[in-house]
Amino acid sequence: MALLDTAFSMLHVLFAGLWTGATVFYAWRIHPLLVDGDIGVTPAMAITTGLRWLTRIGAVVFVATGGHMAGTGYADGRLFSDPMGHAVLGMLVLWLVVTGLLEAAIGKIQTALGEGKIQTAGHENETLIRVAATFSVVLLLLGGYLAQPLV
User: Where is the chain membrane-spanning (predicted)?
Assistant: First the structure.
């Protein structure tokens, strides 16, 4: 069982780093190209589709691995009574917020791109993308806090 727990934890952390990295990179380097109109519709659509799929695959991975970790590490009711459990619950809520922000922003971006409005796609969603990237980093910080051994 310890091997399964380790595998789930590793997959969870690996995917969290990948997803956060992709989100931050998109916000830092790709989205400004939309704002400035320095990227075409086709590559912008491909990149946002990739981020959307990564977010959706992440939803499956995070529910499976995070659910397993919460169920085995906090099965005795500590999820609601322990500060570490509260951090897990906070992480869950924050993950839902980031996922929602990315889904909403990407949907709006792709709609605008479909109409050929590249800069509109960038300007109207800049705040959503920045907030999603910032909160995704906070998620990693919470993950680091939760990585300390349970006592």
Answer: 6-28, 53-75, 87-106, 127-147
Torsion 18-149-61-6 (CA) sign: positive
- 3-state secondary structure (DSSP) of residue 84: helix
In this structure, the number of other CB atoms found within 10 A of the CB of residue 87 comes to 14
Burial degree of 134 (CB within 10 A; 0-12, 13-18, 19+): middle
- Asked if residue 145 lies in contact with residue 111, where contact means CB atoms within 8 angstroms, the answer is no
Count of positions (residues) in the chain: 151
5-38 burial, b for 16+ CB within 10 Å, e for fewer?
eeebbeebeebbeebbebbbebbeebbebbbeee
Q: How far apart are CA 116 and CA 10, in angstroms?
A: 41
